[in-house]
């Protein structure tokens, strides 16, 4: 296919779709085949500055923030309707650009995206201010107001979901937005931008700038007209975002990496725990910040558990992401696959044993894509690099324990604190362990339950700030205290102090 035959996507700025001034595009590569399937306009500094200006003008004009939360919510509800109407096209683009399976895109990503817009579309009541009871003769009230212009930066692993998690609450709160998607996964975002345009938001309220250039992203982060940056991505990049935000002090929210412990006690439901463990590490080929990549396994059931886990893992069908027969698709890029392979090889050199997988699979239909076998490593201790650093791929390390205290100690012995799982039939023990775990989410006898009503975020190097729920909505607001004197006679003490 010639470049001229490829679908081209351009930025969305100030209510219009526009290519970059220098007319440069970057390639979008299908991880299943290694082939270029689309081109995206590679924005430069001019486009980013134009987007920031548009968002600033829109916010300052009050065309969006002066609407009631309920009025803004109607636009979000319309966006949700349009997502559902275009679900098939969105799912196909999500699969083609990220390598996540069609089942995943169709039944998880697109519906979740729509549900998030729908939920926040009816959540305006959460922004109602509240009275502050005081003993003084005043009426004291706290109001929630938008932060202003928000720069949202999202990763490539869940573009549609991450977009919704940030955009829906930020818009409901009355902010204007510049969204920067990953250059590895922009097409579904720009497709959705067309639906947001069709929903009729005022010009400049929502903007999308796709770019491969670091200096363009830095312009968004450092710009004095940007009041907040909400970032999801790797920890080191997040630390740099925080440093750049400090140059023009502004609010920042960071959802970063993880090395989540999956704790399996001897009294678990064995079948459920094995299935949940596989989901926790192998969904989306392990490319999840919440991946349960450290399996903390009770010695009493270790042999039987691993036998079942390895058997089921070996039976996963690896194949092209667009096939509904595929259980396990490719990684997002060749570079990501090479990174995962290097991590496994380094672990083996350090003494780990490959119990399952660990290689690039063979097969004619797989040779051009970025595939890697689902991998389980044994003979690992928690001080090894493979147990401490985020791999962001389908690599599970097995760590055995004898007692509850040991399991908690090992689970918390990490610089990360995003999520964890606990598998046991003893709910008293489960709740006791959950209270001791140093992380933002604890799933008990399940994995991956994300709910629009419940907040999500991390401890330690996994970041700060929250997505979703009341707390996630409040991230995109600032509080204002309004105090009215009610002193009898109308003259408070301060008026006669001097």
Describe this structure in words.
- The chain is of the alpha/beta class and 498 residues long.
- It has two domains: 3-256 and 462-481, Aldehyde Dehydrogenase, Chain A, domain 1 (3-Layer(aba) Sandwich), CATH 3.40.605; 261-444, Aldehyde Dehydrogenase, Chain A, domain 2 (3-Layer(aba) Sandwich), CATH 3.40.309.
- 37% of the residues lie in helices and 21% in strands.
- The protein contains 15 helices and 23 strands.
- The strands form six sheets. It has a seven-stranded mixed beta sheet with strand order 15-16-17-14-13-19-20, sandwiched between helices.
- Helix 8 (235-245) links the parallel strand 11 and strand 12.
- It is globular.
- It starts with 6 loop residues before the first strand and ends in a 13-residue tail after the last strand.
- The model has no long low-confidence stretch (mean pLDDT 97).
- Name of the CATH class of the largest domain: Alpha Beta
Structural class: alpha/beta
Spatial separation of the terminal alpha carbons? 82 Å
CATH architecture of the largest domain: 3-Layer(aba) Sandwich
**Per CATH, what is the topology of the largest domain?**
Aldehyde Dehydrogenase, Chain A, domain 1
* Average pLDDT rating: 97
Q: How much helical structure, as a percent, in the residues?
A: 25-40%
The total of helices stands at 15
| Tally of structural domains | 2
Strand content: 15-25%
List how many beta strands DSSP finds.
23
Q: Give, in spatial order, the strands making up the sheet with the most strands.
A: 15-16-17-14-13-19-20
CATH superfamily of the largest domain: Aldehyde Dehydrogenase, Chain A, domain 1
Largest sheet: 7 strands, mixed
Large-scale geometry: globular
* Radius of gyration using CA atoms only: 24 Å
Low-confidence stretches: none
């Amino acid at each position: 296919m010639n470049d001229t035959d490829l679908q081209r996507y351009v930025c969305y700025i100030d209510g219009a779709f526009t290519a970059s001034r220098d007319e440069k595009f970057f390639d979008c590569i299908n991880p299943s085949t290694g082939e270029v399937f689309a081109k995206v306009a590679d924005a430069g500094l001019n486009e980013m500055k134009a987007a920031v200006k548009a968002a600033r003008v829109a916010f300052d004009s009050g065309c969006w923030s002066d609407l009631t939360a309920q009025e803004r919510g109607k636009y979000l509800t319309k966006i949700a309707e349009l997502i559902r109407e275009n679900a098939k096209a969105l799912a196909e683009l999500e699969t083609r650009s990220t390598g996540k399976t069609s089942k995943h895109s169709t039944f998880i990503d697109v519906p979740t995206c729509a549900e998030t817009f729908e939920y926040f579309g009816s959540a305006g009541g959460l922004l109602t201010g509240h009275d502050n009871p005081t003993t003084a003769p005043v009426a004291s009230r706290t109001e929630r107001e938008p932060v202003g212009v928000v720069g949202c930066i999202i990763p490539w692993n869940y573009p549609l979901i991450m977009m919704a998690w940030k955009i829906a609450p930020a818009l409901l709160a009355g902010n204007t937005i510049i969204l920067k998607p990953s250059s590895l996964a922009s097409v579904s975002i720009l497709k959705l931008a067309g639906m947001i345009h069709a929903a009729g938001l005022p010009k400049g309220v929502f903007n999308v700038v796709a770019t491969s250039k670091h200096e363009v992203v830095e312009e968004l982060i450092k710009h004095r007209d940007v009041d907040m940056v909400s970032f999801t991505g790797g920890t080191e990049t997040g630390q740099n975002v925080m440093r750049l935000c400090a140059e023009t002090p502004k609010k920042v929210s960071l959802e970063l990496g993880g090395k989540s412990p999956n704790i399996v006690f001897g009294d678990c439901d064995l079948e459920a725990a094995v299935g949940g463990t596989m989901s926790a590490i192998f969904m989306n080929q392990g490319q999840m910040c919440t991946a349960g990549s450290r399996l903390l396994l009770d010695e009493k059931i270790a042999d039987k558990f691993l036998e079942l886990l390895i058997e089921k893992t070996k039976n996963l069908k690896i194949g092209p992401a667009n096939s509904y027969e595929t259980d396990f698709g490719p990684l997002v890029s060749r570079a990501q696959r090479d990174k995962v392979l290097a991590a496994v090889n380094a672990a083996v050199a350090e003494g780990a044993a490959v119990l399952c997988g660990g290689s690039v699979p063979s097969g004619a239909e797989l040779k051009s894509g970025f595939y890697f076998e689902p991998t389980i490593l044994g003979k690992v201790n928690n001080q090894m690099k493979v147990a401490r650093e985020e791999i962001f791929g389908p690599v599970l390390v097995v760590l055995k324990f004898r007692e509850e205290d040991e399991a908690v100690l090992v689970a918390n012995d990490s610089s990360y604190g995003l999520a964890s799982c606990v598998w046991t039939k003893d709910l008293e023990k489960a709740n006791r362990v959950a209270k001791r775990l140093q992380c933002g989410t604890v799933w008990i006898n399940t994995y991956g339950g994300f709910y629009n009503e419940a907040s999500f975020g991390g401890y330690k190097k996994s970041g700060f700030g929250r997505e979703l729920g009341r707390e996630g909505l409040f991230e995109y607001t600032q509080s204002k205290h309004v105090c009215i004197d009610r002193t009898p006679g109308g003259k408070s003490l301060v008026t006669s102090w001097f």
